[in-house]
Write a structure and sequence with these properties.
- With 423 residues, this protein is α+β, with helices and mostly antiparallel strands.
- It folds into two domains: 7-134 and 189-296, outer membrane lipoprotein receptor (LolB), chain A; 309-421, TATA-Binding Protein, CATH 3.30.310.
- It is built from twelve helices and 19 strands.
- It has helices spanning 7-12, 20-23, 29-40, 61-70, 94-102, 117-120, 192-200, 295-305, 307-323, 362-365, 367-376, 412-421; strands at residues 75-84, 127-136, 140-146, 151-157, 160-165, 170-175, 207-217, 220-229, 236-244, 250-257, 265-273, 291-294, 331-333, 340-342, 349-353, 377-382, 385-391, 396-400, 404-408.
Amino acid sequence: MAPYESDDSTSTGEVDDLPSGRRKAARYVVPVAVVGVAAATIGLVPALADSGDPDLPEITAAQLIEKIGQSDVQQLSGTFKITTDLGLPDLGGLESSFASGAMGSGSGSGDGSAADPSAKLTELASGTHTLRVALDGENRQKLSLLENASEYSLIHNGKDIWGYDSKSNEVFHGTAEEAKGEQKKEDLPATPKDFAEEALKAVDDTTSVTVDGTAQVAGRDAYRLLIKPKQSGTTVGAIIVAVDAKTGMPLKFTLTPSSGGSAVIDAGFTQVSFAKPAASTFDFTPPKGATVTEEGELEGKAGERGASKSEDELRKEFDKELGGLKSEGKHGKGAEGGPEVIGEGWNSVAVFDTGGEGIPSGAEVGGDMGGFLDSLGDKVTGKFGSGTVFKTRLINALITDDGKVYVGAVDKDALVKAADSGK
């Protein structure tokens, strides 16, 4: 499975011929988008191996990227298998408690719905999951999460958004604008194509992009697009996108960390058809006896809670700002007046000033909670002062004792260096 072209010829030649919009650095968007989508939607089982190396016409990296950009699949149905492995500690019941309490959602919380997508899909932040997906244009989509003895479905049909949790027999109902590009972000859970589009924003002179042979995914012939950072200090090892040779649609997305081991995100189809799904696929009527919660009811309860609503708003604002970051040199503002960005390319670090104090130490808190806090992060010092680094296998964050936050897909040393340079 020899590459069709070398690192040098691809990264310095044909890829540079792409439109400038494709080449602009948006390195920080890649890992942040991946983590955000993983936490809200999906990831794929490593056991889903490529089956065979089909003999396909040679293609350059630039041509394959253009093929992805021109892909316009409007109808499909298929099955995902998903794994997300961020290396987060096992928090046991804390995860469900946060979902039902802090976010005001989840069965048994008393003020939310187990069918609310914003709560239900956060369960996919880790582990292995199987999902079915169907698509018929901009205004009809369905995603079903298959669990051991139950199923959760998220359906977008015209102006209606339905969420149904069979285990609790609860239904969530919301609305969406019935026009292209106006659906809410959470209405359309991501696919390998969504991951790939974010990854392609990483294509610039800090990145090596090659066509790394061929593969078969879900029974279809595909090219393998290999994206690798040229910089050291990043937690991203490589991104591999399996691109359907006929339609140009990404069928599988794999992100491996620079530290080695299993993939952080591995998302792809085990079965896919590009035939038009039956119209009845998107029909939904609340089952008899089901508890139906309207979107406005949840918003009203969030307003009553006050603090929980503010937390949710801050989380959305944080995700929006990170999603819009673009590197602009050694120091600079992100897109649309976003947070300060230190560094370039894959080593970009976003800086937020909370205006408050940092994370308290375990000694300050005391007891079991103090030990828990100390176990989550590493204490560091530098010219900036002192702080704590919180790590995953992809995104790391340094929170200084004076309340500044440095976040990036970089290692601990790079975060300390960024904090020192900010002084």
